[in-house]
């Protein structure tokens, strides 16, 4: 049975921006906020949640069958993230437990990272910086340190949702790139506004000069970029992943780069995260790696906080959410 907002006890698993917390406090909710500097262990998270009616969690906390069994009192889950691969949605559905999340909040910020990684990889930014720091730049050499230009090249998008669409717009406007994409369905906005073409996965691999991944992680997309996929790509192509590290097979990616099956890679994600310091990718000359900072802007994180709070408020006031993972249980 639902409670009034003013009766709710809400566990917030990380110290998120105040904008969302203040919205909940203004409604009379009682909050317990865990410091981000001292994150819960899985067992601590499970036990701490027993106090709460609602858990507002990040994508780093696992919402498993075991967690839900230990917390039958929960009325709702709210994710401080767009992705929800940390949540056992089927287990939530069995319990008719709605799950909110925050897509749209980081569209521009994450597409900026993908766009930046594309340029950084194409022009060897990270490698040139390392050489400069080590004193390895020897002056002008006509055939040294050469990168690639992007104007008029073909951008392939795997997963043309909101973030992928933002990436495609940037590439079209900046470099007049030809846009192709692999998606579950045709995107009419991309077709009409960007002259983008829906293609098969194989065609995406074979035709892309830059292949940028923006899909959710699912059983279907888990390590879909494997050894077979990389061998089908152009030897001059650049692979960009800002979605989830498990969408590509890291061992296969490393081998593809070593073999010259692809030209370079720009990554904002890894598996596991953070990437270990001895990972070969960090020392490859044609690879740019960031520590999953796609949504790390003041504006995006504030909007994520606001949306995660508004999902709670709207559910308890109106029986709906702005963004719900499993609306069938509402």
UniProtKB/TrEMBL annotation:
Keywords: Oxidoreductase
Domain D-isomer specific 2-hydroxyacid dehydrogenase catalytic: 10-326
Catalytic activity: (R)-glycerate + NAD(+) = 3-hydroxypyruvate + NADH + H(+); (R)-glycerate + NADP(+) = 3-hydroxypyruvate + NADPH + H(+); glycolate + NADP(+) = glyoxylate + NADPH + H(+)
Pfam families: 2-Hacid_dh, 2-Hacid_dh_C
Broadest EC class assigned to this enzyme: oxidoreductase
Secretion signal span: none
Membership in a protein family: Belongs to the D-isomer specific 2-hydroxyacid dehydrogenase family. GhrB subfamily.
Name of the protein in question: Glyoxylate/hydroxypyruvate reductase B
């Amino acid at each position: 049975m639902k409670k009034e907002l003013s009766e709710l006890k809400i566990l917030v698993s990380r110290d998120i921006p105040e904008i969302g917390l203040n919205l909940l406090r203004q409604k009379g909710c009682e909050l317990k906020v865990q410091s981000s500097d001292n994150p819960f262990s899985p067992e601590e998270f499970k036990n701490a949640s027993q106090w709460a009616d609602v858990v507002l969690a990040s994508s780093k906390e696992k919402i498993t069958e075991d967690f839900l069994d230990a917390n039958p009192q929960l009325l709702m889950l709210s994710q401080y993230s767009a992705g929800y691969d940390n949540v056992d949605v089927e287990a939530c559905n069995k319990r008719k437990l709605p799950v909110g999340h925050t897509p749209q909040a980081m569209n521009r910020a994450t597409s900026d990272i993908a766009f930046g990684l594309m340029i950084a990889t194409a022009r060897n930014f990270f490698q040139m910086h390392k050489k400069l720091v080590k004193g390895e730049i020897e002056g002008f050499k006509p055939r040294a340190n050469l990168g690639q230009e992007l104007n008029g090249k073909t951008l392939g998008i795997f997963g043309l949702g909101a973030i992928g669409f933002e990436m495609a717009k940037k590439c079209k406007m900046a470099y007049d790139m030809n846009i192709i994409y692999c998606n579950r369905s045709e995107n009419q906005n991309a077709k009409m506004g960007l002259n983008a073409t829906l293609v098969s996965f194989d065609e995406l691999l074979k035709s892309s000069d830059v292949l940028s991944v923006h899909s959710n992680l699912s059983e279907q997309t888990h390590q879909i970029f494997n050894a077979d996929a990389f061998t089908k790509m152009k030897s001059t192509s650049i692979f960009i992943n800002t979605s989830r590290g498990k969408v590509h097979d890291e061992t296969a990616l490393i081998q593809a780069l070593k073999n010259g099956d692809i030209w370079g890679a720009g990554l904002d994600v890894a598996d596991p995260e953070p990437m270990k310091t001895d990972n070969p990718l960090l020392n490859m000359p044609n690879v740019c790696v960031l520590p999953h900072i796609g949504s790390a802007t003041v504006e995006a994180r504030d909007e994520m906080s606001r949306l995660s709070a508004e999902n709670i408020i709207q559910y308890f006031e109106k029986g709906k959410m702005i963004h719900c993972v499993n609306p069938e249980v509402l």
